Amino acid sequence: MPGYLDTAKRWWRRTRRQNKVVQAEAALETLRRFRTISPLLLLINLVFILSFWQFGYDVRAGFLAPHTLAIIQIHSVMALCNLLLGTLSHYLCRHSAALPAKPLYTRLLQLLICLSYLLFAVSIAVADQLVTTSLTPFVLICLLVAMLSLMPPGSSIALFSLTYLIYFYAIASTQDQAEILFRLRGNGRDVLLMCAVVSSIVWRQYVVAILLKREILRAHQTLARKQSELEFLAMHDPLTDLYNRREFMRLAEMELARARRFPTDSNLIVLDLDHFKRINDEYGHPQGDLVLKKIAHVLISSMRETDVVARLGGEEFVILLPKTGQADAIAVAEKIRLRIAAESCQDGEKSLPLSASFGVSGLQVGQTATLEDLYLAADRALYRAKQTGRNCVHYAAPGLVASPAPLSLRGHAGDS
């Protein structure tokens, strides 16, 4: 027995939590529904008013006159309610995001709409007792409220119970035959009980649908985020967030094709950190990774948005400079060289200066070469920079032997 009680308690807590999560959204959805059908309901009120007004004063009607007058009055009041409540619903639906107390306003208006229609149903049932014992309009209106209003079971039970209490005493004002009154009260009780059950079923279906919709939305968002991450990893180096070799090759090919269509100079810079193995050996690979991230930051902060920066692998990086001449490309490489030389690898009291060697190659307007030709030339220039003491910039045209950059742009050779 305790096991069943614990299960029931967990179910009850879970259901209350779910109801609370969707209650504000459900109230707003009720207002949207009412906003949609309120013009139709207003039209129905006007049709009843005109119809009963046209035939209500026929001398042959006799005893129908009081009933007709009551129907006209009830529908007139309800028409005004439809107009007012429909306008308020439209306003809240359009400005719900700007209202600080939106959940409170929407729930209050939802309850007011439901109560208005239930009182309308009671009034019609009471007026109809002047000519018939039928409760058909009462049943239809109550069912309409039960199916269109999204209320938690507690609220719907309370509202339909209040409606029955009003109905119980109001129906006696126009029906004085005890047997018929007893039957009407019993039928009214059954109708409102059925409506409470229908309302609870509709509510539960809505809760399940909304929670499932949110779960699907979260799954889609997670999937989209994972897909975005995979796309990023497919194009970028995971350590430095620079473009990887494959993406660089794709972008560089596109840029060189553009340079051939609209003739401009393009240059390629290849750089390699000096003595990087020593950093890994003396300071460890984690410190080496920090150095690579630091170099990546230097490169990104030194480049234009149109430049393409990538890590080819290990300690080797590459930069494509669109619309850049040879002299400007060498100047950019020298600027980066000086910025890297100003950095150091720190580990406690130990400090190791950083430096890099640069190879530059480029295409002038009218020259033809492939990306591979440019890269091979820049790599030859880089090799020459390593051979002549490191921490310097060398240039090589595609297909030519590497030559040093102008002396004013060369760094001091050293074993660092």
TrEMBL record:
Domain GGDEF: 264-398
Pfam families (alphabetical): GGDEF
Keyword Flavoprotein: no
Keywords, comma-separated and alphabetical: Membrane, Transmembrane, Transmembrane helix
GO BP field: cell adhesion involved in single-species biofilm formation; negative regulation of bacterial-type flagellum-dependent cell motility
KW Nucleotide-binding (keyword) present: no
Source species, domain of life: Bacteria
GO CC annotations on file: plasma membrane
Single GO MF annotation: diguanylate cyclase activity
Transmembrane domains' residue ranges: 40-57, 69-92, 104-126, 138-170, 191-212
EC annotation from Swiss-Prot or TrEMBL: 2.7.7.65
SMART domains tied to this protein: GGDEF
Catalytic reaction(s) noted: 2 GTP = 3',3'-c-di-GMP + 2 diphosphate
Gene3D superfamilies registered for this protein in UniProt: 3.30.70.270
PANTHER family, alphabetized: DIGUANYLATE CYCLASE DGCM-RELATED, REGULATORY COMPONENTS OF SENSORY TRANSDUCTION SYSTEM
Protein name in UniProt: diguanylate cyclase
Species of origin: Undibacterium parvum
